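Slack export, channel: ligand-projects

TW: morning all. Re-posting the request from yesterday since it got buried. We need the structure predicted with the small molecule present, not the apo form. The ligand is magnesium ion; the SMILES is in the block with the sequence. No rush, but it would help planning for next week.
GE: picking it up
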Amino acid sequence: MTPSAPSVIEGIGDDCAILRMGNRVMLASCDLSIENIHWRRSHATPEEIGWKAAASALSDIAAMGGVPLFALVSIACPPEVEVSFMEGLYDGLLDAMAQSGATIVGGDTTKSREGVVIDLTVLGESEGRVLMRKGAKPGDALVVTGFLGMASAGLDALESGARAPELAKAHYHPTPRFPEGQWLSERQEVHAMIDISDGLAQDAGHIAEASRIGVSIDSTRIPVEPRLAAYCAANGKNPLVFMISGGEDYELAFAADPASVEDLLREFRAQFHTSITIVGEFTQSDLGIRVDGAPATIKGFDHFAKKNAS
Ligand SMILES: [Mg+2]
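GE: finished. pasting the full token output, ligand included:
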């Protein structure tokens, strides 16, 4: 059973906990970033590793339409790690925090026996409406920001030794969608939202599950980023695998009223340069999670376990 208290608006189960503190609504989330699970020292600069750890934690605030405020950073590192690596890591963390407007206000450091472990707690607030995973309705459009699959294709390239610096950059330098998330949270026609950390099928599935409905993804509607298409063509890979089951793009996926979604998209495009696309719809619960009409079989992103995507 989930522990509860009067000031807990939403506890465990969404991207952030939603907490009432006086007349303010606070958002709180934590995220672990572990060497050789989430990143490798040989793949990226220390700055990129720090940036990615911070951006992936902060993205959970963007997922709810919140404003990031503070972060606490705890790091465990083994004795052989050089001071210059740790300095670079902090520079990357500080960069991502500064870009989002959040301030590091504390944390802890300790030794580990093996591997670097970064634990980030992020705190933010909502200045209006908080978008949760629950709230989507059957018939709602499934909409995504940006292009999907770039980050996981970047990881695929890094793991296989293929040269694809722009995809690798997408993997190690994601940008949480704060302005877009805040703008969407103010729109009543948006019913539920999540950030895509585990892959489109899995994260759209999280909205569906929390809303007790189903979701149907139409793969032909997902835009293919040209550099992803080129990488897949050159390396015999299927871009859909990255776009549907690849994670860590930190784009937003949301459910919107079908009657007004086209107006919403038009206004969004007038406001932001970020692309935005309808890629499916939410359905009755008995249909589950479907891709092109068939039950989703491509599991969400499993970090290094899934390096043989093809
Ligand atoms: Mg999330």
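GE: first-pass observations. Confidence is low (pLDDT under 50) at residues 300-310. The pocket of magnesium ion is lined by residues 15, 60, 63, 194-195, 197 (CB under 6 Å).
TW: perfect, thank you
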